Every structure is written in structure tokens, then in C-alpha cells.
Amino acid sequence: MHSNHSVTSGRAILNAEVRGVGPPVVFLHAAVADARMWSEQMIGVAVQGKAIAYDRRGFGKTRYVTEDYSSVADLIAVLDALADDRRAVLVGCSQGGRVALDAALEHPTRVSGLVLIAPNVTGAYESDKSPEISNLLAEQAKAIENGDIDTVNAIKARLWLDGPLESEGRVSGRPRDLLLDMNSIVLRAQATGSDHDVAQISPAFGRLAEIKVPALMIWGELDFPHIKERCQVVANRMSNCAVLEIADSAHLPSLDKPNDVTAAIVKFARRAREI
Fold first, then answer.
1. Would you give the end-to-end CA distance of the chain in angstroms?
2. What pTM did the predictor assign?
3. Is the domain covering 2-126+190-274 a CATH 3.40.50.1820 domain?
4. pLDDT digits 0-9 by tens, 128-146
């Protein structure tokens, strides 16, 4: 079964896709992507359960007006509409991981497990970056200031898909074309308004021990060094979190190592259902 849905939350109409039937697995995309980053994983999960992915505000095909909103409330609206009153495994990458963590802390009865791929974590410390990475970030900031969207998009692909210390173009073909298309939409989107979760939900970094559901922390071998370090620290602070490093991949392993990520998610979702 494959279907598309429109889920209302506030004044937004969230674009959602569903594959399969059974225990729900909900996918939350990164800030440089949209629900399409999970295409391969959706197909794999749908063999044994219900895979749900949606575009957050400012991404993909979701329609919205500028207003204050809650990313967690948007997720709960998706669960209410599509999860069949069942607890869900949440799979979140980067900014999507931040939403997954906040939801697990604020609505623990709605979540059966967490797969976190290089997640943002509110309240986490910031580490120093190497001169090479700092120079790339400075180039990106200058391009943003100049309104050079194409250059910003290219730098983001270098940082997040290739890896900040790897050669530009390490990942080519469909994964790169898809990322550039997804992030082009993000860079040209109208303002979403303020996500008040950031101010109103207590920072997750100091509350990680509260999360009791099983979790899996994934990161790419070629990701930012400080992100890899943070992933390990976060996993250690959680009571039931396994770890997995994806070789020869950076921040978005679902794109360039889709089979590895799919296999890990399918195995984890099966384990979460058995608990």
C-alpha cells in the first residue's frame, strides 16, 4: 500500500507519504532535505510495517503560512492522523533527530523507540572546528550574505553529503542531484515563523537519561568530528542506546549508503516491537 496524505496542524497542511501496514515507523528529515531523503528506507520498512514520512514546514510540498508553531505538535498531528493509535518508532536525522528527541521526552507514551542519525540536541555543547571546516563555513556565510543561493547549495552539499574534510563531489549521481533539489526548495522557501519548542521545551541534553525506550545512534564516519563526538556522548547518556558508525559516509547516510541504513532501521524496528 502506498498513499499520500495532507495532515492539518495549525495553519499548515503537512505533506505526508505512507507505505505498508502495521507497526508505524515515522521518518523525520534533515534541515537540508525533505521526506524524499527516506525513499529507500520507506520501501524497506514497508515490508514488515507502516512507514510514514512527511515534509516539515519550509520543506518539500508542505503548505504553510508564517506563524509561531511547534515541530513536536506537528509530529503529534501526523501520529494522530496516520499511526493508527499505536506507538511509533521515530527515525530522525540531524534537525529531525532533535524533533524526535523532544517528542520522546514530551510524549513518551507515543514513542516505542528512537533511531537517531547524527541528531541535533538542544542544550548540547559546541566544540571547536578545524581551520578547514571554519573556512568552508565562512564561505557559506558570505554566499548567504550575497544572496548567492546556488553557491550556498553547493557548499551545503560539500559539507553534509561529501563530508567537510572530503573532496567536493565525493558523492555524485542521484544522491547529489536529489540533495541539491531538496535543499534548493529549503533555500527559497518563505519564512516559517518561530518554532517555540526551542524556547518552551527543556533542553534535551540534560534530560537524556529520562528516555527509557530502546534507541539506536547512527553517524557517518566522514561527518563533522564534533558531531561524531556528540553522538557518542548522547548515546552514553541514554539508558538503552546502541551505536553504529556507517563507513565511507558523512551526515546523510540514508542517501549514499541506503542499504546499510535501511537494514539497521528494519532490524531495530523489529527489536522495538518485541519489547
1. 26
2. 0.97
3. yes
4. 788 999 999 999 999 999 9
